[in-house]
Automatic annotation (TrEMBL):
Subcellular location: Cell membrane
One Gene Ontology MF term: monoatomic cation transmembrane transporter activity
Highest taxon in the source lineage: Bacteria
Name the UniProt record assigns to this protein: TrkH family potassium uptake protein
Organism: Chengkuizengella marina
Predominant location: membrane
Key word Chaperone present: no
Keyword hit for RNA-binding: no
Keyword terms of this UniProt record: Cell membrane, Ion transport, Membrane, Transmembrane, Transmembrane helix, Transport
Family matches, as Pfam families: TrkH (PF02386)
Membrane topology: Multi-pass membrane protein
TM regions (residue ranges): 6-24, 36-57, 63-91, 112-141, 184-205, 226-245, 304-325, 346-366, 372-391, 403-423
GO biological process, one term: metal ion transport
Length: 442
């Protein structure tokens, strides 16, 4: 198998194993039954860290079942090769060149050097942020009176911290974060964890290097500048856009601070978080379409999020502006972009758009008599962007509809290019070329 086929197979095997673990009686609460399709859907959603669910997690799964879910979040969020490398290092095994190639593909890197050190830093950052989040939530849940016992506070704090950081979107509160819609402390910490997970591991590592001051001549890479700028620009535009549309609608009877936190939290979580402080079906259809676009864009590359990623969207926009101005070279931050990166970005954007549109048409043809077009568009983009927000139709989808959503969640997690590379065989060298000829475009 090619490295891409090997990694995709690894994720598929993980989903199958997780499915059967969730079907075990020890994973379910007394008297609860779970069908194979619903278990498969939950496993796919967990491994792809999406958060769309067909069952209520708190009412369905036991403590053992939630532990299985947490392991799924780590596999999907950190990456199967990163966890495998961690196990290899614990066992004292050498990381072979073939294994390094797998890490490179799984972590969306373009060079082999420094991959083992990258994995060490990624795992260290993940454990650090999840531990800090767990500690904060445990202490706060107990002293704020949400849970009387420390054990129960720790249980909910641990699950929520990992779910937020990996952008999994699952919850064991029973109704996502609706009960915390006016608890701004919980929202702020959750927002911080979602951003730390979605902004991308390379960005976090470069920030760490910047503050360590080991290298006095350190400068941020073009990748970090591009993805960070677009990431926070989209957060700002998202919050302002939601406020602008909903100010006289859903926000009509809300106070100024409620408007701020509803807009900010939705702008953050819609990128790939999946946790919600309100029912998004109460938003106007214009807002729902706007959120669908943000979910389609998704998070940064080499992060726990899905979608076409921020760099792809940035390069497409820059290319359109450059072409409109009559220039031939894309320049940003005193650097020029490689033509291969521009071509790859347009390829990903086009392929992702075709995938989403085809999925919408297919799901509408199956479910049009039960759900509105807007609800289906929202569900499709949420699945592709591995976001997890829903207008409440997930559990009511037909079996075929659920399989469509599962394929989209998996595609959004591993990337449309990886899905395409599954069918790729070894590259063949072209022995000859035909003459080139101009065609009329536009």
């Amino acid at each position: 198998m090619t490295p891409t086929q090997f990694i995709v197979t690894g994720y598929l095997i993980s989903i199958i194993i997780a499915t059967f673990l969730l079907l075990l009686p020890i994973s379910l609460k007394d008297g609860v039954q779970l069908s194979f399709v619903d278990a498969l859907f939950t496993a796919t959603s967990g491994i792809s860290v999406t958060g769309l669910t067909v069952v209520n997690v708190s009412e369905t799964f036991s403590v053992f079942g939630t532990i299985v879910l947490l392991l799924m979040f780590q596999i999907g969020g950190i990456g199967i090769m990163a966890l495998g490398t961690f196990l290899w290092m614990i066992l004292g095994r050498n990381i072979s060149l073939t294994y390094r190639k797998l890490i490179m593909i799984d972590q969306n890197q373009n060079r082999l050097s420094g991959l083992v050190q990258l994995i060490r830093l990624v795992l260290g950052l993940v454990l650090l942020f999840e531990a800090i989040g767990t500690l904060i939530f445990t202490i706060y849940f107990h002293f704020a009176g949400y849970y009387d016992s420390w054990l129960e506070a720790f249980y909910h704090g641990l699950f929520h911290s990992i779910s937020a950081y990996t952008n999994a979107g699952f919850d064991i509160f029973g109704n996502s974060l609706t009960d915390f819609s006016h608890d701004y402390f919980v929202q702020i910490i959750t927002i911080a964890l979602i951003i730390l997970g979605a902004i991308g591991f390379p960005v976090l590592i470069e920030i760490k290097e910047y503050f360590s001051r080991d290298n006095k001549n350190f400068r941020f890479s073009l990748y970090t500048k591009l993805t960070t700028s677009m990431f926070f620009l989209l957060l700002l535009v998202g919050a302002i856009g939601i406020w602008f549309v909903e100010n006289e609608l859903y926000y009509a009877d809300k106070s100024w601070h409620e408007k701020i936190f509803f807009s900010l939290f939705n702008s953050v979580t819609v990128r790939s978080g999946g946790l919600s402080t309100m029912d998004v079906s109460e938003f106007d259809s214009a807002t729902q379409m706007f959120l669908s676009v943000l979910m389609f864009i998704g998070a940064s590359p080499s992060s726990v999020g899905g979608g076409i990623r921020t760099t792809t969207f940035t390069i497409v926009i820059l290319a359109l502006i450059t072409y409109a101005l009559g220039r031939s070279e894309i320049r940003i931050f005193r650097r020029s972009l490689k033509q291969d990166d521009v071509t790859k970005s347009f390829f990903i954007f086009t392929l992702a758009s075709m995938t989403v549109v085809a999925s919408i048409i297919l799901l509408v043809s199956i479910e049009s008599s039960h759900f509105s077009l807007m609800a289906i568009i929202f569900e499709i983009t949420s699945a592709f962007g591995t976001c997890g927000l829903s207008m409440g139709i997930t559990s009511e989808l037909s079996t075929l509809g659920k399989f469509i959503i599962m394929v989209l969640m998996f595609t959004g997690r591993i990337g449309v290019l990886s899905m395409l590379y599954i069918f790729q065989v070894k590259k063949r060298k072209e022995n000859f070329h035909y003459p080139k000829e101009d065609i009329i475009i536009g």
